[in-house]
Amino acid sequence: MTPVALLVVFCALMGLIALGRLVVDAERDPVDAGTTLVVWGITALAALWTALEEGWLGTALLGVLGGLGIVLVATGGAIIAYYWRDPGRESAEGLHEDVPDDVETSRE
User: Cα angle at 22 between 18 and 28, to 5 degrees?
Assistant: First the structure.
């Protein structure tokens, strides 16, 4: 088994774990769904690489596998980017509640 084939197996296992977390978790985060898509996209691209090295698939199937991988990675990346929560954009209400009054919390 080539190292790239081992990468496919590893990515598939990580994809199964990520998919399992999505199924079991009651509070699904869209970022987790995007991450799962990226992992499966990388798995498809690693499988494409393995198929190219071993000569397993025809040109049409190689194109489908490559296209699938690219679409999964792009879609997952877009979902991650869209739903990522930047802590700096959240409201500042309650931000410094645990800081004593004698500590300066702003730069003036």
Answer: 130
CA separation, residue 84 to residues 68, 74, 100 (Å): 24, 15, 31
In a domain, residue 43? The reply is: yes
Q: Is there a domain that residue 108 lies in?
A: no
**Residue 48 has what pLDDT?**
92
Note whether residue 58 is domain-resident.
yes
One-letter identity of residue 27: E
Distance CA 74, CA 87 (A): 24
The total number of structural domains that make up the chain: 1
- pTM for the whole structure: 0.73
- Tokens representing 106? 């702003």
- Residue ranges making up the domain that contains 57: 3-84
pLDDT digits (tens, 9 = 90+) for 20-49: 998 888 788 888 899 999 999 999 999 999
